Task: structure prediction
Amino acid sequence: MSTAEFPDVSVMDEVFDLHALLQPDEIEWAMKARTFAQTHIRPVIEDDFDKKYFRKELIPLIAEQGFLGMHLKGYGCAGASAVSYGLVCLETEAVDSGWRTFISVMGSLAMSAIYKYGTEEQKNYWLPQMAKGEKLGCFGLTEPQGGSDPANMLTTATKVGDTWVINGAKRWIGLATLADLAIIWAMTEDGVRGFIVPTDTPGFKATAIDGKLSMRASIQCEIELDNVTLPADAILPNAKGLSGPFGCLNEARYGIIWGAMGAARACLDAVITRSKDREVFGKPIGSFQLTQAKLADMTLEYEKGVLLALHIGRQKDAGTLNIAQISVGKLNSVREALKIAREARTILGGDGITGEFPVMRHMANLESVRTYEGTDEIHQLVIGRALTGLNAFS
Ligand code: TGC
Result:
């Protein structure tokens, strides 16, 4: 299928012809995600964002599409390619970062943690239910004192007889108030370890964070862990040290590389359309050279960002992707998507700050995306370390 035949294709896709670079199954995943997001999320998202409403009734429908843990093999997951997963992230975030975050928290973080580091019993029990959306998971790494330096986490897990006892707090944890299980990372005598914590365990308390001006159509939470006592087999046996949670963050960062470009595309789509009918000085604003220069520059960054995402996706599918390459993609995609959103807003004039257009919502959401899964500064320093061999963190 060529780009031109793709339903509801954006103007940039026509100029770009991304689909000439994709396999038929990858286009199929993208089309499924675009149709789903445009049909079920787009009509309600402005209102949900306004009312701070996470439309959880969409979860079974998302699960039916096969998006939850879609890049994992077996255990009821689709076993799709990394590129297909990236395209689903792009199409979902083209509607709202909060919904791409939902897919990431489930598939890239909670399910990936069990898939990578769990026992066969843990995988067989949790993953099929999570793929069906029957059980929801969250991923507790970040703590109230900050997210950039998890090596200094304060949450502890202590072996007491045949049990583990967890104490501490986590913050900015997506989905925690709805989740059936939390992957909790805690410091033990042997360094950082991960635990599967059923959220109905006494001492586990999640509270949604209110007052957000970003990601308002999704849920982020505080978690308190007060003598949460778990059986010995709650531990993820194959994650030892910080490389455990970082292995999951790599997956989530990968999804963002594609997803942020979806938010950028939505801003560009909206502003190209509007530039043809918003009249200033007696003619459409899109007919002015300065506007066309802005549109051209934004399109260049979008296209370069998607090509970089595709290159990184092909490396991931080939098993050759490294940490610095993920940082290059995450840093570039979110930074450029934010610039595109801000530039798009200028062409909309005052109307650009209202919910009539998706631009301000995407801009606000992207501020969260810029911060979580490694800030710009963290990724600059990861890249700097790869370039110089010198570690700025220690
Ligand atoms: P260092 O302490 O020296 O290394 C520890 C171990 O980790 C390994 N490692 C990685 N492994 C896999 N992938 C990566 N990306 C890795 N980065 C480091 C490292 O090799 C070492 O392994 P080992 O076996 O020798 O013990 O740490 P470092 O100096 O390598 O890294 C420092 C730094 C700053 C890059 C790292 O701490 C970092 O990435 N910080 C940012 C953390 C971050 O992204 N936090 C935000 C998380 S977002 C969130 O929690 C919300 S969940 C989402 C939601 O619910 O919505």
In short: Residues 33 and 39 are 10 Å apart (CA to CA). Residues 101, 105, 109, 138-139, 141-142, 147-151, 172-174, 241-243, 246-247, 249-250, 323, 372-374, 378, 382, 393 surround 3-thiaglutaryl-CoA (CB under 6 Å). The chain has eleven helices and eleven strands.
